[in-house]
Design goal:
It is a single chain. By secondary structure, the protein is mainly α. The protein is 70% helix and 0% strand. The longest helix has 19 residues.
Length: 179
Amino acid sequence: WQAVVIGGGIINGMSQSGRWPKADLAMIIGEDRVLLQRWNRSLDESARMLADEKVPAGTRYDALRMIAMLNWERCHSDLGNYLKHSNSELQMGAVSGLSDIPQPEATTMLLESYGKLTEQNQKLAQSALLRSDDRTLLWLRAIVAKKVDAPGDPEILKAFLDSSNPDIRELAGKIPGTK
């Protein structure tokens, strides 16, 4: 139940409010050594839960949200593996976990798996790709290079064209059917 509260509640809530959970949680924990030790133990436990196929998929989804709070070297392999998972809920956990990692490698991983995601998880990935200008630029470069399909959602295309970032607007103008 703790993974559900932390992964599905706290981390998911921070993410949905547009925050980067890892940074916010580090600020909350601060210099409190006991709290940091408990936090690290909960992350280690979430990695064990994720590996246990007897654990229900919903709880493993929450564990995926939690392992994204680990350093990239410890979490990227699991997140990448679950992007390919046949269970859409576990795939969603991987997309959501990567959504919460602001480094370019996480964005690249989302883009490389985009075409293999379920439709619902593609929409979740789109939201993740719109979380920052850096991510949006990587997405647009992949679209222009024909590595991923352009989103069919006219609202996203409009958001590209209406962006305050001139680089985003310029790249968006290169997508067929926009202007």
